[in-house]
Design brief:
The chain is mainly α and about 375 residues long. It has helices spanning about 10-15, 25-35, 45-60, 70-90, 90-95, 100-115, 135-145, 150-175, 185-200, 205-215, 220-240, 250-280, 280-285, 320-385. Helix 1 packs across helix 4, helix 8 crosses helix 9 (about 185-200) and helix 9 packs across helix 11. It comes from Gossypium tomentosum (Hawaiian cotton).
């Protein structure tokens, strides 16, 4: 597996750029970076402009005396170094450069976090022979690294390494489990599941960044195949609904709503309480001394005082300002409790109705069978001499 920490092409490029003979190249590169930095962001135009610059510099490097006797690999290393240098310098200008990209990243991340609470391999029709938690975990780790790098090549290598782990899993399953390989029919569902389990940060922006700024001559063969599959996985997740999965629509909607409550209630409650306890003195309109919160150790050994600041307070310790905070907390708790109860009740009713429907269907079948048996007996008795 190729690692993303291998930096010799970049180091070699920098070494040659320090040579006085490369001064003309250095000036061209720096001039482009400065001029590009001062233009308004437009991803599609930006991508075309950078690709044209890479092509111009490739021609200049191949014709330059410093690379006159270089092999194709050495020249390619210089071009890789050029791409990394330019895109690292322009990363803040080109990555997630529009409000729309930021919004899409947040929406995808939020949807994946909801799916993580209930989605299982069987919902994507992944065969049991391909359900290997150890391999999936390794693939997830590779994909999660994507946001740690600024160069398109290094981001792409994270995708390639993740995909190779999955490919090895498919190959091993075909050998040891006598599983007939299904090609993309097997690969893509596993990649989708791994992506959901990993929830890589800024997935949309990372894929867009690679597509726009990786040298086009390198987006071929294996790299292009794996990148295309991850783009397809992202699109599948964005459009994912009950029809996309092996799951009933009512169950899918209930699971998503329950996941929203699970994700929202604890975070909002803790945030609200902490903000009010931290800034209580600033919000306190009363002249009294603020409450001295007692810390209580909970059953798990943690301190509960920070999350429930009034649990151990005495009535005489409360101030006028505490009344306002307690009322706000009370409203938050009642609102969330009511919402949670309604959701749980809805889940229970829906499941009971489905269960009753199955029972009625079963009883109806049983009654039809009994009626036929009775009718048969009557006919037999009437024909007896």
């Amino acid at each position: 597996m190729e690692t993303v920490t291998h930096s010799s092409p970049f180091d070699s490029f920098l070494d040659r750029m320090r040579n006085p003979a490369s001064l003309d190249l250095v000036r061209s590169i720096k001039s482009f970076i400065v001029s590009f930095s001062y233009t308004a962001s437009n991803p599609e135009t930006d991508g075309k402009r950078i690709q044209e610059f890479f092509q111009t510099m490739e021609d200049a490097i191949r014709d330059h005396p410093l690379w006159a006797s270089s092999s194709d690999d050495e020249t390619d290393n210089a071009l890789e170094g050029l791409e990394k240098y330019v895109m690292t310098k322009l990363h803040s200008r080109t990555f997630a450069s529009t409000p729309e990209d930021v919004k899409i990243d947040a929406e995808i991340s939020e949807k994946i976090s909801l799916l993580q609470t209930f989605l299982r391999p069987q919902h994507l029709d992944i065969p049991s022979a391909l359900q290997n938690e150890a391999a999936w975990l390794l693939a997830e780790k590779e994909l999660k690294k994507i946001n740690a790098f600024k160069a398109p090549r290094e981001k792409l290598l994270c995708i390639i390494n993740c995909s190779r782990v999955i490919n090895n899993l498919l190959l091993n399953a075909s050998i040891s489990e006598d599983h007939v390989p299904g090609g993309a029919d097997d690969f893509l569902p596993v990649l989708i599941y791994v992506t959901i389990k990993a929830n890589p940060p800024q997935l949309h922006s990372n894929l867009k960044f690679i597509q726009l700024y990786r040298r086009q001559s390198k987006l071929v063969s294996e790299a292009a195949y794996y990148l295309t599959n991850l783009v397809s996985a992202k699109s599948f997740i964005v459009d994912l609904n009950a029809k996309s999965l092996s799951i009933e629509e009512s169950e899918f909607m209930e699971s998503m709503e329950a996941a929203r409550l699970v994700n929202r209630v604890p975070q909002e409650t803790v945030t609200t309480i902490n903000k009010r306890s931290i800034f209580g003195k600033l919000m306190d309109p009363g002249p009294s001394t603020p409450v001295h919160v007692k810390t209580q150790t909970n059953v798990n050994g943690g301190s509960s005082g920070s999350n429930y600041p009034y649990m151990e307070a005495e009535a005489g310790e409360l101030t006028v300002g505490d009344v306002e905070r307690l009322l706000s907390l009370y409203k938050d708790v009642v609102t969330k409790y009511t919402s949670l109860c309604n959701t749980v009740r809805h889940l229970s009713v829906s499941r009971t109705q489905r269960h009753d429907g199955l029972l009625r269907e079963s009883n109806g079948t049983h009654k039809d069978t009994c009626s036929k048996e009775t009718e048969k007996r009557v006919m037999l008795s009437s024909t007896e001499p």
